[in-house]
Amino acid sequence: MSKTTQHVDEVVIRFAGDSGDGMQLTGTRFTEATAIVGNDLSTLPDFPAEIRAPAGSVAGVSAFQIKFSSKDIHTPGDEPDILVAMNPAALKVHQKELPPGGTIICNANAFTSKNLKLAGYESNPLEDGSLEDYYTVYSVEMGKMVSLACEDMGLPPKTVDRSKNFFALGLLFWIYDRPIEPTKDWLGVKFAKRPELVEANIRALDAGYNYGETTEIFMTRYTIDKASLPPGTYRNIVGNYALSLGLAAAAEKSGLNLFYGGYPITPASDILHALSAWKHLGIKTFQAEDEIAGIGSVIGAAFAGNLGITATSGPGIALKSEALGLAVIAELPMVIVNVQRGGPSTGLPTKTEQSDLFQALYGRNGEAPMPIISSATPGDCFFVAYEACRIAVKYMTPVILLTDGYLANGSEPWQVPQLDDLTPFDVKFADKSDLKDGQFMAYLRNKKTLARPWAIPGTEALEHRIGGLEKEDVSGNVSYDPGNHHHMVETRAKKVASIANEFGPTEIFGDNSGDLLILSWGGTMGSCRAAAESLQEKGEKVSHVSLRWINPLPMDLGEILIKFKHVLIPEINYGQLIQIIRAEYLIDAQGLNQVRGKPISSSDIETAVKELIG
Amino acid sequence: MTDSAVKTYSRADFSSDQSVRWCPGCGDYAILAQTQKVFPDLGVRKEDFVFISGIGCSSRFPYYMNTYGFHTIHGRAPAIASGVKLSNPDLSVWVVTGDGDALSIGGNHTIHLLRRNLDINVMLFNNRIYGLTKGQYSPTSERGKVTKSSPMGSLDRPFNPLTLALGAGATFVARSIDRETKHMQGMITRSYGHKGTSFLEIYQNCNIFNDGAYAPLTNKESKADSVLWLENGQPMVFGAEKNKGIRLDGNTPIIVEIGDKWGMDDVLVHDESDYVIASLLSNLTYQSNFPDPIGVLYAIESTTYEDSMMAQINNAVKKSDKKSVQDILNSGDTWNVK
Description:
heterodimer; A: 614 residues; alpha/beta; Pyruvate-ferredoxin Oxidoreductase, domain 3; Rossmann fold; 7-stranded mixed beta sheet; 6-stranded mixed beta sheet; 20 helices; B: 338 residues; 8-stranded mixed beta sheet
């Protein structure tokens, strides 16, 4: 019987296994190979907060989902078509999301009585017939085959067993016709100092690939055409990495030195890691003693004339809040990144959520307005980071940048941007020419942007003092004058509001009037866009707007909203943007709120839309 | 920062146009005056000085210095100063703080600044009371202190700032007194000269809420017996007749009378580079039967954080052929769509 090749448009694969099984790595390698093939793709890593939960337990299951397609896609997919389950716990956790008709590929060797018991199975689902009625099940002795492949290497069995994820990867490479060489090259670099591990993993990878090719278990290979993307050079990009690149690009284009001060926190730490590795670009990173010192050092850096950046997650923002008020009143430029995660308190550290919008808007004492920008996709993190830096410096204000766990760790193919194409970013520090009658006025503002001068220590004749006490307008001296305080509160608010002058017309996906507008912000963009696309194909008058700036809101938003009969706002929170929209525009917007630690599915959005438009 | 182009400054050049608003009689005035006296002679361009403070009476200090200054938030001055120094290591960065600011709300930042050893000068005005909030006990108030928030006496054991600094890995630890203007000038100059974090505690009298806290050290009649003036390489003697000395009995310091039984050779000699001596001296504070050591307790040379940071960066710049973010963007697995 010869093997056949079948052509499909898109596939969703979920790799699931124990935290120690290397599922994130397996998923990442499959993603890189898929990117090279030229499919569009979107990924969703999903891992537990525990670094090593007890092996084989349900709590320790780690998963990585990838959707890849010949079409333009916006989400990592709602449900998987294929579930790769490396142990019983992984099957237990993820089987319920696999729709009937789906495929399960299991590592049969991990279905021991001990592991079955840990996962809560009373009998082995691979043997008791409970799966066959619904799914196509491939029970593969991955562990055994890897140990055979590495038999003559003399490595400890535990070491060999750790390569079994590469067997699964090799098998999937064969089924979906992905190139195997880049992963071999990658292994060579990754384990350069442990050649025996390179060898063991390559053997496992080849064994998996050959298993697909030679056995008669898998009779069909699948091909997915290249996605038709605009011409250019592409790479796969992960959100946190894109964001770090955007910050570095802002430093390079502006000529400012980048100073990053922060404290490690999930899921933001990868930004610190990325920037720390770029010392050759002159980037300074400072791992502070706590979150407060992180923002403190950034405020100091901004005062001294550097491009100050910090990144954290919700609990870290809570700790930084007092300092953010200082940044607001001192009117110093800096960017504060919040990679949002599940809350409140420690909440769900490794899961995604959009519940820190109110915190960003209101989480400070006094009237302390801060511009808030959000990223829509992993690749968009680059552009948003650049824009946040540019606005911070131009308007002399701290800017909050909101991403989330899904964007931070998710990935997509990305057209490599050219620095030359980015909006120019010029900086002018104050100098002697800013003196008025020999005096330096620290709060004498630019009439258009209301920005105050950036006068940095080391500049002759501009010695001045700033601080957290209210400033006298123009001079910047301490002032307790009631009228002055009101004026300064108003001025700080106006300055932030005036940033809206920077925005072009809001982009509407679909007609600019109709039955329903889906309004989103941040990482729900993909699900909302996919739902709008699908509904439009069905002839529904549904459009979609994704907000990049939430403070200030675009000036044309009110005009857009009133042209739709309904407005639906899907958010991964209990209803935050919706309150702002209702308050700001007095419209009866409806919410779709799911706070489950994962993206809202596009099918749930479609359902909600249909309920509203009937 | 020290170069031949430095102008000649006078004390007036360092006085800002803001009227000083500490309570009349406050020890802070003397500290401000000594700072303004010393600064013209440090050989630093005026625009290269930066004063960072937190919250408290002492933290108003930057407003009165005609240099760059930043009056920040409670306890965070060391963190903000670290950002300033790391962004521009050429600046001469000074932190002005108090016992509450540095040791209570900002204790964490203080110890971490000291262990990192950035070249920042810390002046801690220790009045052993909360002045700005009108008279609660502070982390350096003696146990049992009766204040508005401790009507039956405070229960807290006090921090000993110099012991804490030594424990945190400080490379320069010194103490002065607000009334001892000449000595203070010397200590400020030494602080500036030390490459690394200098930690200078200044005993400062709050004449409103804790008047006389250091009276034994400043009153004419008791001063000689209450102060142990430290000088490097000199025996530790005190008293009006200079006839009392500190001697080690095993590991325990004792006071001996120099005369028949003990000679000068029996008295401990101060060595600023000796951690054990510094530690022993710092622990004399709060011991009512011992004089309080004043002067430089400890001074050693050690690499500064910013020098190490710049060395790493310069090394990385030299080694890498990637000079632009574009090089990073273009690297890795890329593919072309035509």
